[in-house]
């Protein structure tokens, strides 16, 4: 569990009109700075190679895959920067620290993917009107290198899956390996049939995959930016959990929101008429919220009756 602290203000020993704020801390098993650096270097170098061969040999499938990989390089840069910013200590101006930078990074990543989609579609349509015969063997060789690089990068992020930022990096690179495998298959199809249109068709298929991923990323990052309850948490279950605690008569002003892509906060007022209250009792509540729902930052306001002012004392 993380460290916690309690602020109690009571009129007498049996009055628990107080506040308890517990902060849980969740970290990946290790610092992923080296993994980010290696992944960015490998993939940035491959983007240059893939785009160069794509333009030289007239393969829009390679160009599209290079665009996809470039967006993922930028995504790794953003994720790395956000993970560093999220570790910075809170300040007088930024009292939550910079944890929400991970949410901004996800939204920026979605915007970058949208730009990449537009550029790839423009070039693919252009090649449809001015076709050039792609070299199937070149496509196979270059895309095969991509499979190796993307797989190796994904392996760097296999651990630490409880961190959504790290999990996102892993899924991006694993998906890239699958896309490169599709490009290899397109290259073999061109070799066997000689049909040049297979190449732009593969490009459109890659764009469709990027659109699908971008939509999901944009939707989730916008929801988090609007402080929506994380999808993994059922508000009804949290409310029922608090209402079911011994001595609790009612629960109101329940708010749950993401502080970052990995941390969730909660505030709630619980009505406990005549019930004794101790710091241990409040710690038990916040510990249960962390263990059952993964909510590591909980602030609980306890009121004597339903007519209490409901403010933080």
What does this structure look like?
It is elongated, with a radius of gyration of 26 Å. It starts with a strand and ends in a 10-residue tail after the last strand. The chain has a 5-stranded mixed sheet with strand order 1-2-5-4-3, covered by helices on one side. It has helices at 33-56, 60-86, 101-129, 136-156, 164-193, 198-225, 235-243, 279-293; strands spanning 4-7, 19-23, 250-258, 264-271, 297-303. β4, α8 and β5 (297-303) form a beta-alpha-beta unit. Residues 1-15, 24-30 and 308-313 have low confidence and may be disordered. With 313 residues, it is an alpha+beta fold. α1 packs antiparallel against α2 (60-86), α2 runs parallel beside α6 and α3 (101-129) packs antiparallel against α6. The longest helix has 30 residues, at 164-193. It contains 8 helices and 5 strands.
Question: Taking strands numbered 1, 2, ... along the chain, how are they ordered across the largest sheet?
Answer: 1-2-5-4-3
Structural class: alpha+beta
What percent of residues are in strands?
5-15%
Through-space gap between termini: 26 Å
Secondary-structure element string: EEHHHHHHHEEHE
- Arithmetic mean pLDDT: 78
Which percent range fits the helix content? 55-70%
Unreliably modeled segments: 1-15, 24-30, 308-313
Tell me how many strands there are. 5
Jot down its keywords.
313 residues; alpha+beta; five-stranded mixed beta sheet; 8 helices; 58% helix
Record the SSE blueprint.
Blueprint lengths: L3 E4 L11 E5 L9 H24 L3 H27 L14 H29 L6 H21 L7 H30 L4 H28 L9 H9 L6 E9 L5 E8 L7 H15 L3 E7 L10
Helix pairs in contact: 1-2, 1-4, 2-3, 2-5, 2-6, 3-6, 4-5, 5-6
